């Protein structure tokens, strides 16, 4: 609408506990393939380098409105205004405000999800994820050789985004109080129990635990699992060095890719990380022509462990691509879609 190019953003973490040293912004092109993004997203959104800007000082700040009274129509009117004279004379427009982008309520999920078709990890990050996935499958291969166990043609592995780190526990408890919802925080024991109750998992099966190691205070996450569920975290899997040499955000990107590739993914519906993994997986199912997104035999099956499903198992989870709001994806929800 503005007929402008988005200057390449920096990516950063949203930790808020004591890990200030982990808050190191990373340029977009250090995580994703820049040229690939522009190629795939042509006609939707384009990125530019700051080096392409001739005048970086003459910037006009566009103050966005905030609050629920700031409507879709006000957004559109303001954008149309800033595409005309005299604003079109400024090389850079910086959008600022408490909520500097369009309210998530204004974005249909299917439009927002187009971005995921354009986000391709840099090859070196993808190769690191390859190593982790290969290690997981090697463990499955070991068990398949010990008896009538899982073959490589069956479920390769399950990934659990186990959100029990200290930063999350502080955040989720405050969120439960503010929203008056008691289904946000999940204890280690609840996660283990619900994952163990998923019907159809052919044991023994490797469970990869995606956790932020630097923020984890519980050293017993490998104990207490149902017999036949074989939990592995980075250290036990032998991939800790792969992660430790990377910045915190790149570690998250690797874990995201490992979770995305899993045959079964189980996360927390109030976690943005989990929500985006499920969105990505749902999009892949639709691209494959899958009509029934939540049948227990579908590819890219996902669950939310913080919400109770049948027989105290996690609730089946797929993104409602026809939803008119990004609320569930951006801030989480207990009203997840599966249909």
From TrEMBL:
GO biological process: fucose metabolic process; pollen-pistil interaction
Membrane-spanning parts: none
Short name of one Pfam family: O-FucT
Stored CDD domains: O-FucT_like
PANTHER family (alphabetical): O-FUCOSYLTRANSFERASE 23
Protein name: O-fucosyltransferase family protein
Organism encoding this protein: Buddleja alternifolia
Alphabetical UniProt keywords: Carbohydrate metabolism, Fucose metabolism, Glycosyltransferase, Transferase
Family: Belongs to the glycosyltransferase GT106 family.
Domain of life of the source: Eukaryota
InterPro entries the UniProt entry points to: AtOFT1-like, GDP-Fuc_O-FucTrfase
GO function term, MF aspect, one: glycosyltransferase activity
